[in-house]
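Researcher: Here's my situation. A collaborator sent me these components and asked whether they could plausibly form a single complex. I don't have experimental data yet, so a predicted model of the whole assembly would be a useful starting point for our discussion.
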Amino acid sequence: MSHVEHQVARPTEIEGEFEPKIVGFLCRWCSYQGADLAGTGRMKQPASVRIIRVPCSARMNPQFVVRAFNRGADGVLVAGCHPGDCHYTSGNYYTRRRMKLIESFLRFMGIEPARLMIRWISASEAQIFSHTVAEFTETVRAMGPNRRMRDVKP
Amino acid sequence: MTAPVQQLKQKAQELLASGKVRYLLGYAQAFDGVGVRPAVFYAADDLERMVLDARAVPGLVSYLFLEARENPSDPGPVGVVVKGCDVRAAERLVADHRVPRERIVMLGVPCQGVIDPELLGAAGLGEVAAVELDADSFVVSGVDGETRRLPRDEYLLAKCRSCTDHNPRAADIMLAEPVDVADASGPDFAEVEQLDGMDDAERYEFWKQQLSKCIRCYACRNVCPACTCRSCVFDQAEPDWLNESVNMSEQMAFHFTRAWHVAGRCVDCWECQRVCPVGIPLMLLNHKLMKDVGEMFGIERPFAPAEREPLGCYSSDDPDFE
Protein backbone atom coordinates (compact mmCIF):
# COMPACT_ATOMS: atom_id res chain seq x y z
CA MET A 1 0.00 0.00 0.00
CA SER A 2 2.73 2.46 0.90
CA HIS A 3 4.04 1.84 -2.57
CA VAL A 4 0.78 3.02 -4.11
CA GLU A 5 0.55 5.99 -1.77
CA HIS A 6 4.01 7.10 -2.60
CA GLN A 7 3.21 7.14 -6.26
CA VAL A 8 -0.16 8.80 -6.29
CA ALA A 9 -0.52 10.90 -3.16
CA ARG A 10 0.77 14.12 -4.67
CA PRO A 11 -1.75 16.72 -5.86
CA THR A 12 -3.25 15.91 -9.20
CA GLU A 13 -3.03 19.33 -10.72
CA ILE A 14 0.29 20.74 -11.66
CA GLU A 15 0.22 24.33 -12.72
CA GLY A 16 -1.09 24.66 -16.20
CA GLU A 17 -2.37 21.60 -17.97
CA PHE A 18 -3.99 18.74 -16.14
CA GLU A 19 -2.05 15.52 -16.51
CA PRO A 20 -4.10 12.51 -15.40
CA LYS A 21 -2.70 10.12 -12.83
CA ILE A 22 -3.58 6.58 -13.73
CA VAL A 23 -2.72 3.49 -11.77
CA GLY A 24 -2.28 0.46 -13.97
CA PHE A 25 -2.43 -3.01 -12.46
CA LEU A 26 -0.87 -5.32 -15.01
CA CYS A 27 -0.69 -9.06 -14.93
CA ARG A 28 2.87 -10.27 -14.74
CA TRP A 29 2.54 -12.79 -17.57
CA CYS A 30 0.63 -10.96 -20.27
CA SER A 31 -0.10 -7.29 -19.90
CA TYR A 32 3.11 -6.36 -18.14
CA GLN A 33 5.03 -8.17 -20.85
CA GLY A 34 2.95 -6.33 -23.40
CA ALA A 35 3.87 -3.04 -21.77
CA ASP A 36 7.50 -4.12 -21.76
CA LEU A 37 7.32 -4.91 -25.44
CA ALA A 38 5.78 -1.50 -26.09
CA GLY A 39 8.84 -0.06 -24.38
CA THR A 40 11.43 -2.10 -26.26
CA GLY A 41 9.50 -1.41 -29.45
CA ARG A 42 9.91 2.35 -28.72
CA MET A 43 6.21 2.98 -29.04
CA LYS A 44 5.06 6.44 -28.08
CA GLN A 45 2.43 6.68 -25.38
CA PRO A 46 1.49 9.10 -22.60
CA ALA A 47 3.49 8.66 -19.39
CA SER A 48 0.33 8.91 -17.30
CA VAL A 49 0.13 5.30 -16.18
CA ARG A 50 1.93 4.25 -13.01
CA ILE A 51 2.33 0.56 -13.52
CA ILE A 52 1.99 -1.88 -10.66
CA ARG A 53 2.86 -5.42 -11.56
CA VAL A 54 0.59 -8.09 -10.09
CA PRO A 55 1.33 -11.84 -10.22
CA CYS A 56 -2.02 -12.47 -11.92
CA SER A 57 -5.01 -10.24 -12.60
CA ALA A 58 -6.80 -12.38 -10.00
CA ARG A 59 -4.45 -10.83 -7.43
CA MET A 60 -6.57 -7.70 -7.83
CA ASN A 61 -8.19 -7.11 -4.52
CA PRO A 62 -11.05 -4.77 -5.36
CA GLN A 63 -9.74 -2.59 -2.55
CA PHE A 64 -6.76 -1.75 -4.74
CA VAL A 65 -9.16 0.07 -7.03
CA VAL A 66 -10.97 1.87 -4.24
CA ARG A 67 -7.73 2.79 -2.50
CA ALA A 68 -6.25 4.14 -5.70
CA PHE A 69 -9.23 6.49 -6.07
CA ASN A 70 -9.12 7.35 -2.36
CA ARG A 71 -5.49 8.34 -2.55
CA GLY A 72 -5.68 10.46 -5.64
CA ALA A 73 -5.78 8.40 -8.82
CA ASP A 74 -7.82 9.88 -11.66
CA GLY A 75 -8.20 6.55 -13.38
CA VAL A 76 -7.49 2.88 -12.79
CA LEU A 77 -6.48 0.42 -15.46
CA VAL A 78 -6.63 -3.31 -14.83
CA ALA A 79 -5.20 -5.58 -17.49
CA GLY A 80 -4.64 -9.32 -17.65
CA CYS A 81 -4.39 -12.24 -20.01
CA HIS A 82 -7.24 -12.93 -22.38
CA PRO A 83 -9.84 -15.27 -20.88
CA GLY A 84 -8.67 -18.79 -21.57
CA ASP A 85 -5.01 -17.73 -21.67
CA CYS A 86 -4.35 -17.34 -17.96
CA HIS A 87 -0.94 -18.59 -16.87
CA TYR A 88 -2.71 -20.16 -13.91
CA THR A 89 -5.50 -21.54 -16.10
CA SER A 90 -8.48 -19.78 -14.55
CA GLY A 91 -7.32 -16.71 -12.58
CA ASN A 92 -8.66 -14.18 -15.03
CA TYR A 93 -12.08 -15.85 -15.11
CA TYR A 94 -12.44 -14.99 -11.43
CA THR A 95 -11.13 -11.51 -12.16
CA ARG A 96 -13.71 -11.09 -14.87
CA ARG A 97 -16.59 -11.88 -12.50
CA ARG A 98 -15.18 -9.65 -9.80
CA MET A 99 -14.33 -6.71 -12.01
CA LYS A 100 -17.71 -6.84 -13.77
CA LEU A 101 -19.34 -6.45 -10.37
CA ILE A 102 -16.89 -3.81 -9.22
CA GLU A 103 -17.40 -1.76 -12.36
CA SER A 104 -21.13 -1.73 -11.83
CA PHE A 105 -20.85 -1.19 -8.08
CA LEU A 106 -18.47 1.76 -8.33
CA ARG A 107 -20.84 3.31 -10.82
CA PHE A 108 -23.64 2.76 -8.30
CA MET A 109 -21.65 4.62 -5.67
CA GLY A 110 -21.28 7.55 -8.04
CA ILE A 111 -17.86 7.05 -9.59
CA GLU A 112 -17.80 7.80 -13.31
CA PRO A 113 -17.58 4.35 -14.92
CA ALA A 114 -15.10 5.63 -17.50
CA ARG A 115 -12.48 6.10 -14.78
CA LEU A 116 -12.07 2.36 -14.48
CA MET A 117 -10.84 0.43 -17.49
CA ILE A 118 -10.45 -3.32 -17.70
CA ARG A 119 -8.71 -4.80 -20.72
CA TRP A 120 -7.27 -8.12 -21.76
CA ILE A 121 -3.83 -7.53 -23.26
CA SER A 122 -1.48 -10.35 -24.19
CA ALA A 123 2.32 -10.30 -24.10
CA SER A 124 2.50 -9.72 -27.84
CA GLU A 125 -0.10 -6.95 -27.95
CA ALA A 126 2.24 -4.03 -27.36
CA GLN A 127 0.36 -1.98 -29.92
CA ILE A 128 -2.90 -2.57 -28.12
CA PHE A 129 -1.35 -1.66 -24.79
CA SER A 130 -0.03 1.54 -26.25
CA HIS A 131 -3.38 2.43 -27.79
CA THR A 132 -5.24 1.55 -24.62
CA VAL A 133 -3.06 3.85 -22.55
CA ALA A 134 -3.39 6.68 -25.04
CA GLU A 135 -7.14 6.29 -25.32
CA PHE A 136 -7.67 5.98 -21.57
CA THR A 137 -5.46 8.96 -20.81
CA GLU A 138 -7.44 11.12 -23.21
CA THR A 139 -10.73 9.95 -21.71
CA VAL A 140 -9.59 10.75 -18.20
CA ARG A 141 -8.02 14.03 -19.25
CA ALA A 142 -11.32 15.10 -20.73
CA MET A 143 -13.09 14.21 -17.48
CA GLY A 144 -10.69 16.22 -15.37
CA PRO A 145 -9.29 15.33 -11.95
CA ASN A 146 -11.17 12.84 -9.84
CA ARG A 147 -12.74 14.43 -6.78
CA ARG A 148 -14.99 11.60 -5.77
CA MET A 149 -14.30 9.03 -3.09
CA ARG A 150 -11.76 11.47 -1.80
CA ASP A 151 -11.51 14.11 0.82
CA VAL A 152 -11.03 17.11 -1.37
CA LYS A 153 -13.18 20.06 -2.15
CA PRO A 154 -14.89 19.80 -5.53
CA MET B 1 -52.24 -15.46 12.24
CA THR B 2 -51.69 -16.08 15.91
CA ALA B 3 -48.11 -16.83 16.78
CA PRO B 4 -47.65 -20.34 18.23
CA VAL B 5 -46.42 -19.08 21.58
CA GLN B 6 -47.92 -21.94 23.59
CA GLN B 7 -46.35 -24.54 21.30
CA LEU B 8 -43.05 -22.69 21.58
CA LYS B 9 -43.13 -22.62 25.36
CA GLN B 10 -44.00 -26.30 25.48
CA LYS B 11 -41.21 -27.30 23.10
CA ALA B 12 -38.78 -24.99 24.87
CA GLN B 13 -39.62 -26.60 28.17
CA GLU B 14 -39.08 -30.10 26.75
CA LEU B 15 -35.78 -29.16 25.15
CA LEU B 16 -34.42 -27.36 28.20
CA ALA B 17 -35.64 -29.91 30.74
CA SER B 18 -34.21 -32.83 28.78
CA GLY B 19 -30.94 -31.02 28.20
CA LYS B 20 -31.27 -31.35 24.43
CA VAL B 21 -30.33 -27.69 24.19
CA ARG B 22 -28.09 -25.79 26.58
CA TYR B 23 -30.09 -22.66 26.21
CA LEU B 24 -32.64 -21.14 23.92
CA LEU B 25 -32.51 -17.89 22.01
CA GLY B 26 -35.91 -16.25 21.90
CA TYR B 27 -37.70 -13.00 22.57
CA ALA B 28 -38.81 -11.13 25.67
CA GLN B 29 -40.62 -7.87 26.21
CA ALA B 30 -38.32 -4.94 25.46
CA PHE B 31 -37.44 -2.42 28.14
CA ASP B 32 -39.40 0.31 26.39
CA GLY B 33 -42.55 -1.76 26.88
CA VAL B 34 -43.40 -1.51 23.18
CA GLY B 35 -41.19 -3.89 21.21
CA VAL B 36 -39.40 -7.13 21.90
CA ARG B 37 -35.74 -7.82 22.52
CA PRO B 38 -33.60 -10.91 22.07
CA ALA B 39 -33.47 -12.98 25.25
CA VAL B 40 -31.64 -16.07 26.42
CA PHE B 41 -33.55 -18.78 28.28
CA TYR B 42 -31.47 -21.16 30.35
CA ALA B 43 -34.06 -22.80 32.55
CA ALA B 44 -37.32 -24.60 31.88
CA ASP B 45 -38.99 -22.59 34.63
CA ASP B 46 -37.86 -19.27 33.17
CA LEU B 47 -40.20 -19.33 30.18
CA GLU B 48 -42.91 -17.05 31.60
CA ARG B 49 -41.25 -13.97 30.17
CA MET B 50 -40.95 -15.52 26.70
CA VAL B 51 -42.74 -13.57 23.97
CA LEU B 52 -43.52 -14.49 20.40
CA ASP B 53 -45.72 -12.41 18.14
CA ALA B 54 -45.59 -10.13 15.12
CA ARG B 55 -42.98 -7.96 16.83
CA ALA B 56 -40.31 -10.67 16.46
CA VAL B 57 -38.04 -8.57 14.25
CA PRO B 58 -34.46 -8.89 15.57
CA GLY B 59 -32.62 -11.84 14.06
CA LEU B 60 -31.28 -14.26 16.66
CA VAL B 61 -29.10 -16.39 14.45
CA SER B 62 -25.99 -14.23 14.62
CA TYR B 63 -25.68 -15.08 18.32
CA LEU B 64 -24.95 -18.64 17.23
CA PHE B 65 -21.77 -17.41 15.64
CA LEU B 66 -20.67 -15.76 18.89
CA GLU B 67 -21.55 -18.95 20.75
CA ALA B 68 -19.47 -21.11 18.40
CA ARG B 69 -16.59 -18.67 18.56
CA GLU B 70 -16.60 -18.58 22.36
CA ASN B 71 -16.96 -22.34 22.69
CA PRO B 72 -15.05 -24.06 19.91
CA SER B 73 -15.13 -27.35 21.81
CA ASP B 74 -18.91 -27.72 21.34
CA PRO B 75 -20.50 -28.05 24.78
CA GLY B 76 -23.85 -28.92 23.18
CA PRO B 77 -26.53 -27.58 20.87
CA VAL B 78 -28.35 -24.28 21.25
CA GLY B 79 -32.00 -23.70 20.41
CA VAL B 80 -33.07 -20.71 18.38
CA VAL B 81 -36.43 -19.34 17.29
CA VAL B 82 -36.39 -18.71 13.53
CA LYS B 83 -38.60 -17.27 10.85
CA GLY B 84 -38.05 -18.14 7.20
CA CYS B 85 -35.63 -15.25 6.68
CA ASP B 86 -33.61 -16.26 9.74
CA VAL B 87 -33.19 -19.76 8.33
CA ARG B 88 -31.23 -18.33 5.41
CA ALA B 89 -28.93 -16.63 7.91
CA ALA B 90 -28.41 -19.92 9.74
CA GLU B 91 -27.70 -21.66 6.44
CA ARG B 92 -25.15 -18.99 5.76
CA LEU B 93 -23.28 -19.70 9.00
CA VAL B 94 -23.36 -23.42 8.30
CA ALA B 95 -22.23 -22.99 4.69
CA ASP B 96 -19.35 -20.77 5.84
CA HIS B 97 -18.26 -23.43 8.36
CA ARG B 98 -18.80 -21.01 11.20
CA VAL B 99 -21.36 -23.06 13.11
CA PRO B 100 -21.76 -26.81 12.61
CA ARG B 101 -25.35 -27.68 11.75
CA GLU B 102 -25.63 -30.14 14.63
CA ARG B 103 -25.03 -27.33 17.11
CA ILE B 104 -28.25 -25.58 16.07
CA VAL B 105 -31.78 -26.61 16.95
CA MET B 106 -34.11 -24.41 14.94
CA LEU B 107 -37.64 -23.88 16.20
CA GLY B 108 -39.43 -22.65 13.09
CA VAL B 109 -42.24 -20.13 13.10
CA PRO B 110 -44.22 -19.75 9.88
CA CYS B 111 -44.57 -16.03 9.32
CA GLN B 112 -46.82 -13.80 7.25
CA GLY B 113 -44.93 -10.65 8.07
CA VAL B 114 -43.93 -8.65 11.11
CA ILE B 115 -44.63 -5.11 12.18
CA ASP B 116 -42.14 -2.30 11.65
CA PRO B 117 -40.91 -1.55 15.20
CA GLU B 118 -40.19 2.09 14.41
CA LEU B 119 -43.69 2.69 13.09
CA LEU B 120 -45.19 0.82 16.01
CA GLY B 121 -43.25 3.01 18.42
CA ALA B 122 -44.23 6.14 16.51
CA ALA B 123 -47.90 5.13 16.66
CA GLY B 124 -47.77 6.01 20.37
CA LEU B 125 -50.12 3.33 21.63
CA GLY B 126 -48.53 3.07 25.05
CA GLU B 127 -47.16 -0.18 26.38
CA VAL B 128 -47.86 -3.15 24.14
CA ALA B 129 -48.52 -6.69 25.35
CA ALA B 130 -48.83 -8.43 21.99
CA VAL B 131 -49.20 -7.79 18.27
CA GLU B 132 -50.84 -10.33 15.99
CA LEU B 133 -51.33 -10.16 12.26
CA ASP B 134 -54.95 -10.43 11.23
CA ALA B 135 -56.08 -10.59 7.61
CA ASP B 136 -55.34 -6.97 6.79
CA SER B 137 -54.34 -5.40 10.05
CA PHE B 138 -52.02 -5.74 12.99
CA VAL B 139 -54.04 -6.23 16.17
CA VAL B 140 -52.19 -4.49 18.95
CA SER B 141 -53.14 -5.56 22.47
CA GLY B 142 -52.12 -2.92 24.97
CA VAL B 143 -51.00 -3.60 28.51
CA ASP B 144 -54.05 -1.52 29.49
CA GLY B 145 -56.32 -4.20 27.98
CA GLU B 146 -57.31 -2.13 24.98
CA THR B 147 -57.12 -3.58 21.47
CA ARG B 148 -56.25 -1.36 18.54
CA ARG B 149 -55.88 -2.12 14.86
CA LEU B 150 -53.17 -0.81 12.55
CA PRO B 151 -53.46 -1.30 8.77
CA ARG B 152 -51.15 -4.09 7.60
CA ASP B 153 -50.04 -2.40 4.39
CA GLU B 154 -48.88 0.66 6.26
CA TYR B 155 -47.16 -0.99 9.19
CA LEU B 156 -45.64 -4.08 7.58
CA LEU B 157 -41.85 -4.22 7.85
CA ALA B 158 -40.29 -3.31 4.51
CA LYS B 159 -38.41 -6.57 4.01
CA CYS B 160 -41.60 -8.60 4.50
CA ARG B 161 -43.12 -7.04 1.40
CA SER B 162 -40.88 -9.16 -0.79
CA CYS B 163 -40.57 -12.20 1.48
CA THR B 164 -39.24 -15.24 -0.31
CA ASP B 165 -39.49 -17.67 2.62
CA HIS B 166 -42.69 -17.41 4.62
CA ASN B 167 -42.10 -20.89 5.98
CA PRO B 168 -38.86 -21.92 7.66
CA ARG B 169 -38.41 -25.04 5.54
CA ALA B 170 -35.17 -26.28 7.07
CA ALA B 171 -36.29 -25.88 10.69
CA ASP B 172 -35.79 -28.86 13.00
CA ILE B 173 -39.07 -28.33 14.80
CA MET B 174 -42.04 -26.62 13.18
CA LEU B 175 -44.14 -24.83 15.78
CA ALA B 176 -47.21 -24.50 13.56
CA GLU B 177 -48.63 -25.62 10.25
CA PRO B 178 -46.97 -23.89 7.29
CA VAL B 179 -48.76 -20.78 6.13
CA ASP B 180 -50.25 -20.84 2.67
CA VAL B 181 -48.90 -17.60 1.26
CA ALA B 182 -47.24 -17.16 -2.11
CA ASP B 183 -43.52 -16.41 -1.75
CA ALA B 184 -42.03 -13.56 -3.76
CA SER B 185 -39.43 -14.60 -6.30
CA GLY B 186 -36.84 -12.24 -4.88
CA PRO B 187 -36.17 -8.86 -3.31
CA ASP B 188 -37.67 -5.72 -4.78
CA PHE B 189 -34.95 -3.81 -6.61
CA ALA B 190 -37.09 -0.79 -7.46
CA GLU B 191 -35.02 1.59 -5.31
CA VAL B 192 -31.78 0.27 -6.74
CA GLU B 193 -33.11 0.84 -10.23
CA GLN B 194 -34.26 4.31 -9.35
CA LEU B 195 -30.80 5.21 -8.06
CA ASP B 196 -29.23 3.54 -11.07
CA GLY B 197 -31.30 5.80 -13.28
CA MET B 198 -29.81 9.00 -11.82
CA ASP B 199 -26.66 10.49 -13.25
CA ASP B 200 -23.29 9.87 -11.61
CA ALA B 201 -23.06 13.22 -9.89
CA GLU B 202 -26.50 12.87 -8.29
CA ARG B 203 -25.74 9.36 -7.17
CA TYR B 204 -22.44 10.41 -5.68
CA GLU B 205 -24.16 13.26 -3.82
CA PHE B 206 -26.70 10.79 -2.48
CA TRP B 207 -24.06 8.45 -1.13
CA LYS B 208 -21.91 11.28 0.13
CA GLN B 209 -24.81 12.50 2.20
CA GLN B 210 -25.76 9.05 3.43
CA LEU B 211 -22.26 7.86 4.21
CA SER B 212 -21.15 11.04 5.91
CA LYS B 213 -23.62 10.13 8.67
CA CYS B 214 -21.66 6.98 9.45
CA ILE B 215 -20.06 6.91 12.90
CA ARG B 216 -18.15 3.70 12.16
CA CYS B 217 -19.67 1.75 15.03
CA TYR B 218 -19.39 -1.45 12.95
CA ALA B 219 -22.82 -2.61 14.10
CA CYS B 220 -23.62 -3.53 10.49
CA ARG B 221 -20.62 -5.81 10.40
CA ASN B 222 -21.17 -7.27 13.85
CA VAL B 223 -24.78 -8.24 13.25
CA CYS B 224 -24.26 -9.69 9.79
CA PRO B 225 -24.50 -13.48 9.52
CA ALA B 226 -22.34 -13.38 6.38
CA CYS B 227 -19.64 -11.15 7.90
CA THR B 228 -17.89 -13.66 10.12
CA CYS B 229 -14.18 -13.65 9.26
CA ARG B 230 -12.15 -14.53 12.32
CA SER B 231 -9.73 -11.80 11.46
CA CYS B 232 -11.53 -8.82 9.96
CA VAL B 233 -9.93 -6.33 7.60
CA PHE B 234 -11.49 -3.49 9.61
CA ASP B 235 -9.71 -4.59 12.79
CA GLN B 236 -6.25 -4.98 11.32
CA ALA B 237 -3.74 -2.23 11.86
CA GLU B 238 -1.30 -3.86 9.48
CA PRO B 239 -1.64 -3.78 6.52
CA ASP B 240 -3.27 -0.41 6.82
CA TRP B 241 -6.27 -1.02 4.59
CA LEU B 242 -8.53 1.31 6.45
CA ASN B 243 -8.34 3.56 9.45
CA GLU B 244 -10.94 5.10 11.71
CA SER B 245 -10.70 8.62 10.36
CA VAL B 246 -14.08 10.03 9.64
CA ASN B 247 -13.56 11.45 6.20
CA MET B 248 -14.99 10.74 2.79
CA SER B 249 -12.28 8.44 1.52
CA GLU B 250 -12.38 6.24 4.61
CA GLN B 251 -16.18 6.21 4.72
CA MET B 252 -16.41 5.29 1.07
CA ALA B 253 -13.73 2.64 1.42
CA PHE B 254 -15.43 1.21 4.49
CA HIS B 255 -18.87 0.93 2.96
CA PHE B 256 -17.58 -0.30 -0.34
CA THR B 257 -15.62 -3.00 1.44
CA ARG B 258 -18.36 -4.01 3.84
CA ALA B 259 -20.83 -4.50 1.01
CA TRP B 260 -18.25 -6.11 -1.25
CA HIS B 261 -17.23 -8.64 1.38
CA VAL B 262 -20.76 -10.00 1.47
CA ALA B 263 -21.30 -9.77 -2.29
CA GLY B 264 -22.97 -12.95 -3.49
CA ARG B 265 -23.28 -14.05 0.14
CA CYS B 266 -25.79 -11.60 1.59
CA VAL B 267 -28.95 -13.45 2.66
CA ASP B 268 -31.24 -10.41 2.45
CA CYS B 269 -32.02 -10.41 6.19
CA TRP B 270 -31.82 -6.58 6.46
CA GLU B 271 -30.20 -6.77 9.89
CA CYS B 272 -27.40 -4.31 8.95
CA GLN B 273 -29.92 -1.67 8.02
CA ARG B 274 -32.04 -2.39 11.08
CA VAL B 275 -29.18 -1.93 13.55
CA CYS B 276 -27.67 1.13 11.86
CA PRO B 277 -27.96 3.90 14.46
CA VAL B 278 -27.84 6.67 11.89
CA GLY B 279 -30.19 5.16 9.31
CA ILE B 280 -27.94 4.53 6.32
CA PRO B 281 -29.84 2.51 3.68
CA LEU B 282 -27.24 -0.25 3.64
CA MET B 283 -29.55 -2.70 1.91
CA LEU B 284 -29.34 -0.54 -1.21
CA LEU B 285 -25.67 -1.46 -1.50
CA ASN B 286 -26.35 -5.13 -0.79
CA HIS B 287 -29.26 -5.20 -3.19
CA LYS B 288 -27.25 -3.64 -5.96
CA LEU B 289 -24.65 -6.41 -5.70
CA MET B 290 -27.36 -9.03 -5.32
CA LYS B 291 -29.16 -7.79 -8.42
CA ASP B 292 -25.96 -7.77 -10.45
CA VAL B 293 -24.89 -11.21 -9.27
CA GLY B 294 -28.28 -12.56 -10.26
CA GLU B 295 -28.43 -10.87 -13.64
CA MET B 296 -24.81 -11.12 -14.73
CA PHE B 297 -24.13 -14.67 -13.67
CA GLY B 298 -27.61 -16.11 -14.04
CA ILE B 299 -28.11 -17.03 -10.42
CA GLU B 300 -31.73 -17.58 -9.58
CA ARG B 301 -31.72 -17.01 -5.82
CA PRO B 302 -28.66 -14.82 -5.21
CA PHE B 303 -29.82 -14.28 -1.61
CA ALA B 304 -29.84 -17.96 -0.66
CA PRO B 305 -26.70 -19.84 0.39
CA ALA B 306 -25.67 -22.29 -2.33
CA GLU B 307 -23.13 -25.03 -2.88
CA ARG B 308 -20.78 -22.72 -4.79
CA GLU B 309 -20.53 -19.03 -3.99
CA PRO B 310 -21.12 -16.84 -7.05
CA LEU B 311 -17.71 -15.22 -6.61
CA GLY B 312 -16.02 -18.48 -5.72
CA CYS B 313 -16.58 -19.92 -9.15
CA TYR B 314 -16.85 -18.78 -12.76
CA SER B 315 -18.27 -19.73 -16.09
CA SER B 316 -16.52 -19.32 -19.42
CA ASP B 317 -19.76 -17.74 -20.67
CA ASP B 318 -19.68 -14.88 -18.18
CA PRO B 319 -20.18 -11.37 -19.57
CA ASP B 320 -16.93 -10.01 -20.91
CA PHE B 321 -15.27 -6.63 -21.31
CA GLU B 322 -14.91 -5.20 -24.77
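Model: Some features of this prediction you could bring to your collaborator: Chain B touches chain A at residues 192, 195-196, 200-208, 233, 239-241, 247-250, 252-253, 255-257, 259-260, 263, 285, 288-289, 292-293, 296-297, 310-311, 314-316, 318-321 (CB under 8 Å). The first strand of chain B starts at residue 24 and ends at 29.
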